[in-house]
Amino acid sequence: MAEKPPKGMVTVEQIAGFNAVIDARAPAEFADDHLPGAVSMPVLDDEQRARVGTMYKQVSAFEAKKLGAALVARNIADHIERHLLDKPKAWRPLVYCWRGGQRSGAFSHVLREIGWDAQRLQGGYKAWRRHVVEHLAQLPDTFGFRVVSGATGSGKSRLLEALAARGGQVLHLERLAAHKGSVLGELPGEAQPSQKAFESRLLGELSALDPKRPVFVEAESRKIGRLQVPDALLAAIRAAPALRLEATLPARVAFLLRDYDYAVADPAWLVERIGHLGGLHSRDTLERWRALAAARDFHALVEELLTRHYDPLYERSQAKNYRSFETAARYATERLDDGTLGGIAAEILATEG
After folding, report:
1. pLDDT for 228-247, tens place per residue?
2. CATH fold for domain 143-352
3. Distance from first CA to last CA of the chain, Å, rounded?
C-alpha cells in the first residue's frame, strides 16, 4: 500500500481535478518540459535563480536565503496581483517546483494562507519525470497498433489525419515531434520540443487512447528529427501488423511539391539541407541536386531524391525493422488528394474495425 503523502501534498497519481497547475520553476526549466496544462508562474526568474545560486556557493547559505526570500515574496505578490485576484474561494491549484521543496512550498503556503486549498506536488517535477519514464516503458504493450507504411511522399501523415477525422484512434508522432521525419522535415517557424517535453506529450496522447480499439501510427525510424522515439514504443510499433500505402511516383512527386511548398519557396534553404546528405551520395550527385534547386527545377529534384535516396533507404529500413512489411495489406492509388485519402481511410476503418 502506497504511503500517504504529507498534509498539503499530493502524488503524481492524484494530480487530476485541480483548477490550475502552477509551475513555480524558472522559465528555462518550464520551457524544457512541464506538466500537461501547467502555467508558468516562477518564484525566481532565470537571472534571479542564478544570482541566488551563485551567492549560496560563493558567500553563504544564509545570505542566499535572505536574497531569495525577498525575491520570492515579491514575485509571488506580483503573480497574485496579475493572475489570481479574480479566483473564487473554491479555486483549487496544484503547485510544483523541481523537487517539491522551497519554491513550491513558499508559493503554496501563501495561497493557503489566503484561503485557497492549494496543494503541492510531492517530489515536484522530478516525480513527474519518473512517472513519464516508467509509464512509457509499460503503456505501449497495452495497445494494438496498426502501422501505416509507405514510401516517402505517400501521404502517410495525411492518411493518419483522415483516419482520425473518421473516428479512428491515431498516434501522430510527427505532429508531437514537430518534424516530418526526413532531412527536409524541419517545420518553418516551429522548433522541435525537448526530448523530455516530447515524452510528456507522448504520455498524454497514450493515456487518452482506448486499449480495446486499434491505434494507427506511422512507421517511423528511431529518430524524428533530433528526437528519439522511446524504446518500448518503437518495439511495439515494429512488431505490429502493417498496412502499406502504395502511390505512384508521379502522385508522390506532386504531393511533396504541395506538402513542402515552404521548402520550394526558399531554394537557398533547400540547397543547404541537401548538404546534409553528404557522405551518402557522391559530390557530383549533390552538386547536381543543388543546381536543380537553384534553377527551381523542383519536379526533377524531387523525383531524383525519391528514386535515388529515399526509396532505396525506405526499402532497406522497412524490410529490416518491420516484421509485417512483406505481408502488409496494400492500398494502391494514383492520387493523393484529400478525397482519395479519405476514401482509403474509410476502407481501412471498415477492414480494421
Report:
1. 999 999 999 999 999 999 99
2. Rossmann fold (3.40.50)
3. 39
**Cβ–Cβ < 8 Å for 109, 72:** no
Q: Which of 41, 64, 97, 254 is catalytic?
A: 97
Q: Can 97 be counted among the known catalytic residues?
A: yes
pTM: 0.92
What's the whole-number average pLDDT of the chain?
94
Q: Give Rg (Cα) of the chain.
A: 25
Please give the Cα distance from 279 to 346 (Å, whole number): 42
Nearest to 165 by CA among 203, 216, 233, 220: 216
Fold of 9-133: Oxidized Rhodanese; domain 1 (3.40.250)
What lies within 8 Å, CB to CB, of 220 at 6+ separation is: 173, 174, 181, 229, 234, 237
pLDDT for the residue numbered 244: 94
Angle at 228 between CA 154 and CA 169, to 5 degrees: 55
The percentage of residues in the chain with a pLDDT greater than 90, rounded to a whole number, is 82
Query: In the structure grid, which three cell numbers stand for residue 324, read together?
Result: 509485417
3 state DSSP class of 56 = helix
CB within 8 A of 38, min separation 6: which ones? Answer: 21, 22, 23, 30, 96
Q: For the chain, percent helix, then strand, then coil, each to nearest 5?
A: 55, 15, 30
Domain boundaries, the chain: 9-133, 143-352
